[in-house]
Amino acid sequence: MSKNIFRISPGFEDIMPDEYKELVESGPYGKDLGVSDMGTFKELLEEHPLCAGCGLALSLRLILASLPNPEDTVIVGSTGCSALAFPQVAVHNIHSLFGNQNAVASGLKRALKLRFPDKVKDVVVIAGDGATADIGLDMVMQSWFRSESITTIMLDNEAYANTGGQESGMTQQGAVMNMAPKGKNFPKISLPEIAREAGCSYVASISPAQPKRLEKMVRRAILTAREVGPSYVQIFSPCPTNYKFKPQETVSRIKQHQKEGHYQTKEYINTAAQEYLASIEEGKKNE
Amino acid sequence: MLESKYQVLTGPEGYLPPAAASKGVTLPDEGLALVEGTIVPEKDAIEKIAEKILQAKNPFFFPGPLLLWDWKEGVAQKAALVKKLAEVAGIKIIPMPDYRPKYPMINPDIEINPNHPNLTIWHNKIDLCLFIGVHCHYANVALKIIRGGTDCYTIALCGEAGHEDAMISLRDVGLAQLEALIEAVTRLKGVANS
Ligand SMILES: Cc1ncc(C[n+]2csc(CCOP(=O)(O)OP(=O)(O)O)c2C)c(N)n1
Ligand code: SF4
Prior knowledge:
The complex is a heterodimer of chains A (287) and B (194).
Chain A lengths: L17 H9 L28 H12 L6 E6 L2 H5 L6 E5 L4 H15 L6 E7 H6 L2 H9 L5 E6 L34 H7 L4 E5 L4 H17 L3 E6 L3 H4 L6 H10 L6 E4 L1 H16 L1
Parallel strand pairs in A: 1-2, 1-3, 3-4, 4-6, 5-6
Antiparallel strand pairs in A: 5-7
Chain B lengths: L31 E4 L2 E4 H14 L3 E5 L1 H4 L6 H15 L2 E2 L23 H8 L3 E5 L3 H14 L3 E5 L10 E3 L4 H19 L1
Helix pairs in contact in B: 1-6, 3-6
GO molecular function, one term (chain A): thiamine pyrophosphate binding
Keywords (chain A): Oxidoreductase
Protein name (chain A): Thiamine pyrophosphate protein domain protein TPP-binding
């Protein structure tokens, strides 16, 4: 994408709303910024409408700050809470029908390859656990089987939050929610393992309580999808509204779950991706 | 060519005004324009736009992203002419920098939300608006909403093939058309003042 798209036409500077002027003056585009620069550049999210303390909002901000190439990235979302924040994101994004996100992303990536053969265009799916592990699982797995060059990121709040709190395949066994009053009968699915078996070259699970590792994993996943094969990142993003905890407790709750072993930070990289990532990460060190 | 009797007039036409295209209004060929659903020569439409602007109590430009952002060659010149036309004709400007549905946080004094253009029109009591630099699909949606819920007169200065749902629609608007509009407004103003 031409960065001129972030230059205001002469004469219109005074009538542009402040948020756009700020975006032009201190946006992230073309600057190779990351999670540790957060606060020094214009945030990608503008007055998002998610609940206070929402784990998805926190994860989303970190993901956006980790994109290696935001101006040439298209995010494909799905119906759910995170979809409410996407319209506020200053990165190209598409809202797809609930569960269809990986099919849409596959087509988009192929079209971008044909349309811009000499450019790097990253396609990143960001969707909830219901969209990824339940209703969209068919499309998600088929995109992995076909080895589509896309990154799938699941914002795992262990619930269908946007429809009032039903259990999903990712809900922990025994969890009680508004619309699962008797507690869930089955254990949480291990989607990272499924992703690995289904052909992903890079798989990780992480939480926003570890922002630098999250950044590294999101970058690795996107770079792997560019050159090697599909990638998957699962991010634990609890929902204070449906799980009924205080908004300020989100991060401590994540840490507690990790300590108790309910949610583990993991990374799987296949040999081809290892070689590729080593070559670029080595190159960066030598710069 | 199918000749439509349907007149694209100011609303309010109710919650779901018919798309003018579904009533048989067709887009004009090159060199032609639409005035209230009828195909006329471009220069007649330019004359009519100038008249309408000068008659309006509170005319506004709604420039979209294709004009507000200096994204390709030629945009800056077009932007300069739009500013000039606004000054000559006394047209105020509310920008539409992108199409994010910012409801309910939109401030209608500062920017226009294409999904709720009627809010901006009601709030500012706008009786004539000119769309320019708005991507076609968003212009279509916004123009229809305006016709559905307000009595604002809409004019589309389109860089492509025009819009059936605007009361007046020019196509292929470039520097020449904007200069002709400035000329027409200046001339008609002179006549009115003499
Ligand atoms: C095809 C379709 N089926 C069902 C729905 C209803 N629906 C909307 S959001 C949602 C749940 C989303 O859950 P998840 O993907 O986990 O995202 P979250 O809201 O938790 O972020 C459902 C079932 C829909 N909008 N479209
Ligand atoms: S319901 Fe939960 S997941 Fe949805 S916005 Fe609120 S806190 Fe976030």
